[in-house]
Amino acid sequence: MGCFSARWVLILLCCLQLITALERQVFDFLGYQWAPIMINFFHIIMVILGLFGAIQYRSRYVIMYLLWMLLWVGWNVFVSCLYLDLGGLSKDSDLLSLGVSSHRSWWKDNGPGCESAGLPSAGWQNQRNPELSTVMSCWLEFQYIEILHCSVQILLSLLGFIYACYAVSTFSDEDDSCKYAPDE
User: Fold this and answer.
1) CA dist 24 → 61, 75, 86, 101, 150 (Å)
2) What's the gap between Cα 62 and its chain centre?
3) Looking at residues 118-143, what average pLDDT do you find?
């Protein structure tokens, strides 16, 4: 067994996916984006199961992780298309908040270098509605930050998929098979 076997690389990739998914979950909670919150939560569970499968040499868990990675890549491509306004999707739609609130990406108002414009009257200053504030300029627009998050997730998922395929092929299925004792 080498230092960088597929199993250990898969464990490292799962840990990186957990860190980036938790970071993404925090910012989705701050922006009240309910669809990504639910899907990120499910993603975290599936990555933990994949991590457990890699540590314990359980090929069934790793295969479940493999299948989830395909769905996860699809979700991130969808979110990227949404923020790029491709395919009839619009970043201004309520798809990610499930129409429950008027909140948008947390990065829209709080991105790196964003300067908010003052509200027209002092009576509106105590309101928490993000639609009432205007962001004048940012170093990096919020949709590109969201696409960067998606790109990192896609990269880690594709690498995880490749190493999981290899790890599953190297695992022995002794714990899943039934061995019959020979009759004497």
Assistant:
1) 24, 14, 22, 19, 9
2) 18
3) 59
